Amino acid sequence: TVGKICMADLFDNNRYSHDPRTQFLSWGLMDNGAWDYSANVRGYTPAFAVELFKGRNEFRYAFSLLPEEANVGTMNWDIGKSRGQMAEYVHNYKVGGHPGAVRVLAFLNTAGMGNYRESIALDPTAPSIIATREDGRTKWGIGLNAEQEFTKDLGGFLREGWNDGTNETWCFTEIDQQVSGGLALNGTLWHRPKDVVGLAFIVSGISDAHKDYLAAGGNGFILGDGALTYAYEKLAEFDYSCALRDGIWLSGAYQFVADPGYNSARGPVNVFSLRLHAEI
Asked: 210: part of which helix (H) or strand (E)?
């Protein structure tokens, strides 16, 4: 595959938690939140990917561009200084006739990132990650992703992700560690087999360096309010996707967020959403 593509369309797939157009809405349920996946501000990047399917096993690798600066639209075409690389192994299997899959993902980003510790050392009272940006910085991480069908109508998923959290987040969101899991049930019991109801939970965290940077008053491209009383961020999401007709879904979701932005002085937050998705 060659072109301007979304890495999440190729990697970290999951039958029960992957597509925010009709499934769970939270970013931490769309993908492994600790995967700082290559993308411009809208989620796309020029890239090429190679995939091999052999029996029950899948192998894929991609090489992509990264933004010139954190979370912007302009991409850096100097691959000697800036690049994203991803590799994934997938094993598909069946238990009692019910399909399942296990995925292992690894990524390595190289870009002109800033460093949390250096930013604090440069200015302990108002650190700026931008002030320490330097070519050749890296961010790497791994992720585990599993799905399992329990019955023809009920399935579940589990994800775990981690990145080194030494340098700034460059593309996706400010999560350095995450565990998520949930269940999805088709509506056969209430005579709407194409409807899906889901319940999922996430616990997210950040590295010690990232934590200290925010506590000192630093800002990332999403987080930062001048102070931080650190706590893991906890999120629960309930989602109902109603198939109005073929190709049209109406979905409603409720999210409860405790300690948003890893700050126990904030929240909790209640989020309600309604989505209409049509495929022509």
From this structure: helix 208-215
108's tokens: 């390595």
Say which residues have a Cβ less than 8 Å from residue 101's Cβ, sequence separation at least 6: 15, 90, 91, 92, 93, 146, 147
**At 146, is the pLDDT very low, low, confident or very high (cuts 50, 70, 90)?**
very high
Phi, psi of 18 (to 5 degrees): -160, -30
- Helix or strand or coil: residue 82? coil
Helix (H) or strand (E) holding 66, with range, is strand 66-67
Summarised one tens digit per residue, pLDDT across range 34-92 is 999 999 999 999 999 999 999 999 999 999 999 999 999 999 999 999 999 999 999 99
Residue 128: which residues within 8 A CB-CB, separation 6 or more?
114, 119, 122, 218, 219
183-230 pLDDT, tens per residue? 999 999 999 999 999 999 999 999 999 999 999 999 998 998 888 999
pLDDT tens digits for range 229-240: 999 999 999 999
Spatial contact of 217 and 127, defined as CB atoms under 8 Å apart = yes
Residues 195, 249 contacting (CB under 8 angstroms): no
Neighbours of 245 (CB within 10 A): 8
Angle value at C-alpha 268, between 265 and 271, nearest 5 degrees: 140
Instruction: Please count the other Cβ atoms lying within 10 Å of the Cβ belonging to residue 95.
Output: 10
Residues 6+ apart with CB under 8 A from 97: none
